[in-house]
Specification:
Number of domains: 2
Shape: globular
Number of helices: 11
CATH topology of the largest domain: Glutathione S-transferase Yfyf (Class Pi), Chain A, domain 2
Helix content: 40-55%
Strand order of the largest sheet: 2-1-3
Order of helices and strands: HEHEHEHHHHHHHH
CATH class of the largest domain: Mainly Alpha
Oligomer: single chain
Bound molecules: glutathione
């Protein structure tokens, strides 16, 4: 379902599903959104968001300037990870990515928050990356990104949150395997598996053949693991590889 990007200006008058995505890098929130729609066979039009930039046109269209942001026809823009997931579920319920069973739903949304939410894994890894960018003069507008994405806690808090979440996920993956499931929740694929697959790329870069992303992005991930101070458990990388191969369109394209 590879498609060329269009600008916000081109996207605004269009009908259908348009999704603003950071062009040129596999932003984990954006890659997860893309995977939901791809897995469900829902067509969408990628729209350019420029990472770290003001994105004034996107701001005027959607009331915010981050990616991803999904706009279906003339409905309200959806930029929170859970809004985008629920939109995908509504547009095409099968295959389900939010479990029907209420206990499993709670587990899935809990894991998703730990991966995607404020003070979660992606949030914390990004703060570690901003620190690395600053040390290496990476040319990224650090102050703009900190203003958007800092919670005011010190760097060691971000490192320990990322480590705690990795431990929690590894324990869960092991328990699930012991009961005969290849998935993080219940016995089937859910958004939790997709989020982990995409967010794992922040710490252990996917193979070039699967995800041809810039070398600097790979280097930031390795630096991130050093700051976390513990390796990413093998069980989680094996899980990521299984989900990638079974459920993603490869190579990724951004
Ligand atoms: N709004 C999303 C999070 C989106 C997000 O954090 N996007 C980042 C991904 S690194 C982004 O757009 N960064 C580039 C930028 O801010 O320009 C949510 O809470 O679900």
């Amino acid at each position: 379902m590879r498609r060329d990007y269009i600008t916000v200006e081109q996207a605004v008058p269009m009908a259908g599903l348009r999704i603003a995505l950071t062009q040129g890098v596999p932003g984990p929130w954006g890659e997860a959104a893309k995977a939901f729609f791809n897995i469900k066979g829902i067509d969408f039009q990628p729209v350019i968001q420029n990472g770290g930039q003001p994105n004034a046109e996107l701001q005027a269209w959607t009331g915010q300037n981050s990616a991803p942001c999904a706009v279906l026809d003339d409905e309200r823009p959806r930029s929170h990870w859970s809004e985008i997931l629920m939109l995908a579920e509504r547009m095409q319920p099968e295959p389900r990515l939010v479990p029907l069973d209420e206990e499993e739903r709670v587990a899935m949304f809990g894991i998703a928050h730990e991966l995607c939410g404020e003070d979660g894994f992606g949030w914390s890894a990004r703060l570690l990356m901003l620190h690395i960018m600053e040390q290496t003069n990476a040319g990224v507008p650090i102050e703009h990104m900190r203003r958007k994405f800092s919670s005011g806690a010190p760097l060691d808090h971000a490192a320990s949150r990322a480590g705690q979440i990795l431990d929690m996920l590894a324990r869960r993956a092991e328990k699930q395997q012991a009961r005969g499931s290849d998935y993080l929740v219940g016995d089937a694929l859910s958004a939790a598996d997709i989020y982990w697959t995409c967010f794992s790329n922040l710490v252990v870069a996917m193979d070039e053949a699967d995800c041809p992303m810039p070398q600097y992005y790979r280097d930031w991930g390795a630096g991130c693991v050093q700051l976390i101070g513990q390796p990413v458990p093998d069980v989680l990388i094996a899980h990521r590889e299984r989900i990638l191969r079974r459920h993603f369109s490869l190579p990724m394209w951004f």
